[in-house]
Amino acid sequence: MSTKSPECWANDAQAHAVRVETSADHSLLLPHDDFAFAELDREGKEQTLRLVFAMHEVLVRGHSLRRIETAMQRMELSHLATLPRSQRSLITEGQPVIFEIVVTEMKPLERSPSGELNDRVMASAVSQKS
Asked: Cα dihedral sign for 53, 87, 84, 14?
């Protein structure tokens, strides 16, 4: 029996992309070169980390997400996935726990017939909640 606690994120100094698992059957690789910015908000006990890439927005909801934000700041974040409810009690206090991931693909800026740029349009969202 393994004594290693389950993990919902990983970092690797050699990573060139973040693998975001939205389900057991679906994942995305988002290149670090496409990373634009991150935003971390706290609402009560829960936190929301927003990671914005060139064509995708990743919303991560959970606890102790500052370490994930720091890994992204250093361009070392390599993996994100939700942690099943049944495994959350196995996580050491202060370690990141991801409850939900929502990935939204954004369409590029488009010009209207008059030549004006329209804002990016959210095309689709993929969510994983455990």
From this structure: positive
**Rounded CA separation 123/106 (Å):** 5
Bridge partners (DSSP) listed for residue 9: 80
Instruction: Summarize pLDDT for 73-116 with one digit per residue, the tens.
Output: 999 999 999 987 776 676 777 789 999 999 999 876 666 666 66
Q: Look at residue 65 and give its three-state secondary structure.
A: coil
**Of 32, 41, 19, 28, which Cα lies nearest the Cα of 72?**
32
Partners of residue 17 on adjacent β-strands:
31
Q: Are 88 and 98 in contact (CB under 8 A)?
A: no
Sheet with 26-31: strands ordered across: 9-11, 77-80, 17-23, 26-31
DSSP 8-state class, residue 67: H
| pTM, two decimal places | 0.79
For residue 33, what is the DSSP state?
G
What whole-number distance in Å separates Cα of residue 43 and Cα of residue 14?
Answer: 33
